[in-house]
Design goal:
Aspartate Aminotransferase, domain 2; seven-stranded mixed sheet; binds pyridoxal-5'-phosphate; four-stranded antiparallel sheet; 17 strands; alpha/beta; globular
């Protein structure tokens, strides 16, 4: 392809992508759709500038308006997360975690976190698995004992584990809560006093559940004793991709230095503007949204159970968050099912479930899929639509219908859900492609 052909092709492919998503059911638990105002922020000149440092103490000139926006962003983050301090500069959730590792531990220290099949994230992972904590910061990782029945961290087992680690000269410096497969609150309240007495700094990784915490519909980690909370700004929180850290005031200076200069140079100012807009939307609409998200996740779980799927966390009503974990091993493996569903315009991903590694399963072919409803909820879907979504999934996975036929019905179903909700403005379609160059067909 010559230069112009490549240029045209990239523009065409982006447009195709928008069209495809407008006809699909987006069920990736870590994704959401930002409002028109957030998209406007991403296109603004803020994205071409440098700031570095803290508002008012910048390394660069030209920050008059940028500083004001960032101060508003920090103020909104403090309000939304009921925190004493907020830093909105981390360029992603992983960078936010790295800043916490740098601020509160040294290479060679121990951290206790959830393993990946038990919901942990690769950024909490061991060096031998190329996990960020081990590979980049040199932390040694031990795992929390986990109850598959309760689908959360086991409190008594954790206390015992920490005592054993101390006995072996491996006293943990950091305790990491939160994760990516995250159905029920983690026991921060139950463990924070114990962990603090043992000299452990507590971070809560709210990457997935930040929007639910903002809405007051999940746990409140800082109130329950966490020292800080890291998050992504784009999962259940509906901002642009990025990271945010909130914490107790006493940790402010250490965290600020760990973010800059420790882990960022440019902190992507268009994303800071987008985060501010998303936080304002969250302050206004976040509670209603979070409530509906959780109702939708439960409705989808019940719908799937009705069609014979195994959904984890049955004992506790399947989920208290935006996502559900479905055991699909009766019908195939998670990897193959993910691909079949994608052909039917149903976008979700495969998932290692607790016990999969021990059973010799590989992350390409795990026993489960993870399904999230942040985006479908933002598109205005409610419980009755979740039953329809469960029906589309069943046609592909259980009835083994031709996915291309199901895709046509999915596209038809999506026609009524083209605007986004829970926003001050929704003048453009949720997936409308905005072209700034010559009209292309
Ligand atoms: C998604 C996720 C992250 C990473 O966030 P990015 O913004 O993609 O860097 C970190 N922690 C957890 C638990 C996550 O699920």
């Amino acid at each position: 392809m010559n230069a112009k052909a490549s240029y045209d092709e990239v523009l065409r492919l982006m447009k195709e992508h928008h069209h495809w998503f407008s006809e699909s059911i987006p069920l990736i638990a870590s994704e959401n759709i930002p409002s028109a105002a957030v998209r406007e922020a991403l296109m603004s000149d803020f994205g071409n500038r440098y700031a570095e440092g803290w508002p008012g103490e910048r390394v660069y000139a030209g920050c008059t308006y940028i500083d004001q926006v960032e101060l508003i962003c920090n103020e909104l983050a403090r309000k939304v997360f009921r925190s004493e301090f907020a830093d909105c500069r981390a360029t992603s959730g992983v960078v936010a975690n790295l800043a916490i590792y740098a601020a509160f531990s040294r290479p060679g220290d121990y951290m206790i976190a959830a393993s990946i099949p038990n919901g942990g994230h690769i950024s909490h992972g061991k060096k031998e698995n190329f996990g960020t904590a081990g590979l980049v910061h040199g932390l040694n990782i031990e795992y929390y004992p986990f109850s598959k029945e309760e689908m959360t961290i086991d409190v008594d087992g954790t206390k015992k584990k920490i005592q054993e680690m101390e006995h072996d000269g491996k006293s943990p410096k950091l305790g990491m809560f939160g994760g990516s497969l995250f159905l029920f609150p983690h026991p921060v309240k139950e463990l924070s006093d114990f962990m603090h007495e043992h000299g452990i700094y507590i971070n809560y990784d709210g990457a997935h559940v930040a929007g639910l915490i903002a809405g007051g519909e999940f746990q409140d980690p800082l109130k329950e004793g966490a020292d800080s909370m890291t998050m992504s700004s784009h999962k259940t929180l509906w901002g642009p991709q990025g990271g945010i850290i909130v914490s107790l005031e006493k940790h402010a200076e250490t965290i600020k230095k760990a973010v800059f200069p420790g882990n960022t140079s440019s902190h992507h100012l268009h994303h800071v503007a987008g985060k501010a807009i998303a936080l304002a939307e969250s302050l206004q609409f976040g509670k209603d949204y979070a409530k509906q998200v959780i109702k939708n996740a439960r409705a989808l779980a019940e719908g799937l159970v009705g069609f014979g799927f195994g959904v984890l966390g049955e004992k506790k009503g399947y989920t208290a968050s935006h996502q559900i974990a479905v055991d699909v091993s009766k019908f195939g493996d998670g990897g193959t099912i993910e691909k079949d569903l994608e052909k039917a315009n149903i976008i979700l991903n495969r998932q290692l479930l607790p016990g999969d590694i021990k059973a010799g399963r590989h992350y390409m072919h795990p026993s489960g899929v993870r399904i999230g409803v942040p985006e479908t909820t933002r598109l205005g879907m409610k419980e009755s639509e979740m039953k329809e979504v469960a029906g589309f999934i069943k046609r592909v996975v259980v009835d083994k219908q031709d996915p291309h036929i199901v895709a046509k019905d999915v596209a038809d179903f999506r026609k009524q859900f083209q605007q986004l909700h829970y926003a001050f403005d929704n003048t453009i379609g949720a997936y409308e492609y905005i072209s700034l160059v010559t009209k292309r067909t």
